[in-house]
Write a structure and sequence with these properties.
Blueprint (H helix, E strand, L loop, with lengths): L2 H12 L3 H5 L3 H36 L5 H9 L4 H33 L7
Helix pairs in contact: 1-5, 3-4, 3-5
């Protein structure tokens, strides 16, 4: 499998940055992975905070906890910047991984090509 294709699949299906690891672009890989973890952390912590607030309110008022209400409230927890960050990282990693893999593939082909015969 060509490096460009491998990087595209890894970045698209596993996690942004994994294709860059396969290409040995370690700085970009770590940066992309950190950004993805930051975005996931923001989304998860906002959902947990919202759920905790609703559950505490229900318990304080003596009402039973309505799990449907908690689930619906955590779905739109207001961290749209984190969703955009994740989407941006995913798209950038796929495009950049393919571009970098293509550059490496072409470099390997140039090294393996026999020298041209003089005319």
């Amino acid at each position: 499998m060509k490096r460009a294709t491998k990087a595209l699949w890894l970045n698209g299906l596993v996690m942004p940055g994994t294709g860059h690891l396969a290409l040995r672009c370690y700085r970009r890989a770590v940066l992309l992975m950190l950004l993805v973890v930051l975005g996931l952390w923001a989304i998860i912590s906002a959902a947990i905070d919202t759920a905790r607030t609703l559950i505490e309110h229900s318990l304080a008022s003596g009402q039973p906890v309505d799990l449907q209400q908690v689930m619906m409230a955590t779905q739109g927890s207001g961290v749209s910047w984190a969703y955009l960050l994740l989407l941006g990282c995913w798209v950038f990693s796929m495009v950049d991984g393919y571009r970098e893999g293509r550059r490496q593939d072409l470099r390997v082909l140039k090294r393996a090509a026999p020298p041209s015969a003089p005319r």
